[in-house]
Automatic annotation (TrEMBL):
InterPro entries: NAD(P)-bd_dom_sf, Sacchrp_dh-like_C, Sacchrp_dh_NADP-bd. Gene3D superfamilies: Dihydrodipicolinate Reductase, domain 2, NAD(P)-binding Rossmann-like Domain. It comes from Ruminococcus bromii. Residues 5-156 form the Saccharopine dehydrogenase NADP binding domain. This is Saccharopine dehydrogenase family protein.
Length: 419
């Protein structure tokens, strides 16, 4: 018996809402609140006669703490699931603190305006101190730990697929297969084809910022940074086949480096086709990926936001995308003094996701774990005052829920490793 307030109603939220409605015993009531209320009303109309979950909707500007506090005070949820954009993480956390409400998200904070001098000063110091230059990092949200502890509320950070399931796979491997994990390679393969020469599978602004940034990995206690797409490997993925993959900076490297004792190296690879890379390079070369506003005919526009308006809406890719995703982690470590390697991964079929919830697999593989994370906080299994990443909790109930709610996983005890 619980009430959940979901903020945002885009691709990922659409899936999470469907999944909450399949799990009405936990989610007895949900309120969907977003900037554009008509999207919330449309999904409510689609689902309300198919579920016992009672659905209400609201309009909210999640950049405004006051609006969020007013909404939380009137709806009185047990927890808030943030499925808006990483830009809103801190205002939503502030509103949760003020109202003493648990908080859950899928992506770490990054600023909308990377020219903001206050943010930039902190960012430049972090680049120098820690050695990676991605716009996003956990420091902003980890800084809330004490405040959340004092307020007696839980913040669960990063319960999507990556971060999210990949970190739960790590906790599960450590609990059941290893005494120590030394090497982690996270492999994110999207073997889906949507037929467009160029489109992004989730929010274009966030996606393009991530993949056009410098790469980096964690080795022997420090960050090693690379040029974007500098390190390429080829891997033969179960259910997909051979794909080119590139080393990227990714947020779970930061939390796993902190939370997995004795880890020596953590890398993250994502697959990209040549067409995607050529388009991205070209857009970057002409300045279309810039987050700095430019004047155009007397009006300020942000190039990457204008590009977003031109690209297909990720939510519209569902009916067109065919093929599978395969995301997982290869772990090497020791058990009973013997070295061993295992690979835990999930395969997900774009068309099957579309048949079930009307979305492609990238939204599906994020929306399902968002629902699972929320259900574990609401049921009290993952409730502990403070700010936590998913690998800090018992992975077993999460792994069980993945099997139950559409993301079954396999353990390969003799995998091919990445050079
Ligand atoms: P979308 O752009 O499809 O949806 C974002 C939603 O947030 C939209 O409904 C949008 O409203 C709403 N929104 C944006 N700004 C505000 C605001 N100020 N106030 C209220 N609502 C707002 O994004 P996705 O669904 O693709 O992604 C959602 C989140 O999931 C992102 O944070 C993304 O980084 C994360 N993600 C995490 C992954 C993981 O594996 N961990 C993988 C993929 C995504 P409107 O409709 O008006 O635009």
């Amino acid at each position: 018996m619980s009430r959940l307030l979901i903020i945002g109603c885009g691709g990922v939220a659409g899936v999470a809402i469907h999944k909450c409605c399949q799990n009405s015993d936990v989610f007895t009531e949900i309120c969907i609140a977003s900037r554009t209320k008509s999207k919330c009303d449309a999904i409510k109309a689609k689902l309300e006669n198919t579920t016992k979950t009672v659905i209400t909707t609201a309009q909210v500007n999640a950049d405004s703490k006051d609006e969020l506090v007013a909404l939380i005070n009137s709806y009185k949820p047990d927890a808030v699931l943030n499925l808006a954009l990483p830009y809103q993480d801190l205002t939503i956390m502030d509103a949760c603190l003020e109202t003493k409400t648990d908080y859950i998200d899928t992506a770490n904070y990054e600023p909308e305006d990377t020219t903001d001098p206050e943010w930039k000063a902190v960012y430049e110091k972090r680049c120098k101190d820690l050695g990676f230059t991605a716009y996003f990092d956990y420091s902003w949200q980890w800084a809330y730990k004490e405040k959340f502890e004092k307020a007696g509320i839980t913040a669960l950070l990063g319960t999507g697929f990556d971060p999210g399931v990949t970190s739960v796979f790590t906790a599960y491997a450590l609990k059941h297969y290893f005494d120590e994990i030394h090497y982690i390679d996270i492999l994110d393969c999207n073997g889906g084809d949507h037929g467009y020469p160029f489109a992004t599978n989730f929010n274009p602004e966030i996606n393009l910022r991530e993949v056009s940034a410098n790469g980096s990995y964690w080795e022997d206690g420090k960050w090693i940074e690379t040029k974007p797409m500098e390190i390429k490997r080829v891997y033969n993925f179960d259910g997909v086949g051979e794909k080119d993959m590139y080393l990227l900076h990714h947020e779970e490297i930061e939390s796993l480096a902190k939370n997995i004792p004795n880890v020596k190296r953590i890398r993250f690879f994502m697959t990209f086709g040549q067409s995607y890379l050529t388009h991205m390079q070209c857009l970057e070369n002409v300045g279309m990926l810039s987050t700095e506003p430019v004047m155009y005919e007397g009006r300020e526009i942000v190039p990457i936001q204008f590009l977003k308006a031109l690209l297909p809406d990720p939510a519209s890719l569902g009916p067109r995308t065919k093929g599978k995703t395969n995301i997982g982690c290869i772990f090497t470590g020791v058990k009973d003094s013997k070295e061993k390697t295992i690979y835990i991964y999930n395969m997900c079929d774009h068309q099957e996701c579309y048949k079930e919830v009307g979305s492609q697999a990238v939204s599906y593989t994020t929306g399902v774990p968002a629902m699972i994370g929320a259900s574990l906080v609401l049921s009290g299994q993952w409730k502990k005052p403070g700010v936590y990443n998913v690998e800090e909790f018992d992975p077993d109930p999460y792994m069980e829920a993945l099997n139950k709610f559409g993301l079954p996983w396999v353990v390969d005890e003799n995998p091919v490793t990445v050079e």
